[in-house]
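Milestone M4 deliverable, item 7.
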Amino acid sequence: MNKGDLVNEVAKVVSSKKEAQAAVDCVLSTITDALTGDDAVTLVGFGTFKAVERKARKGRNPQTGQEISIDARKVPKFVPGKALKDALK
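Output delivered:
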C-alpha cells in the first residue's frame, strides 16, 4: 500500500478525496514535526514513532575498500504496539 492507496481508503470514510488527502498529509506532517522536536508519537494499540540518535562510526566504501567516517545523526524508529503485533500472528 502506498500513500495514494491510503488516501483512497480514508476517502471511503470522509466525504471527499480532497479531505482525505488533507487528513493524511496532516497526520504525516504532524508526526514529522513531533520527531523533529524530539517528541515521541504514541498511537495506543498501533505503535510509537520516536527519533533515536545513531553514534558516529567507521564504515567502508564497498567499491574501494577505503575506510570512511559516518557522522552521528538522528533517525526515525517505529516500535509496534501489542495490538499490531497480535494482529500479525
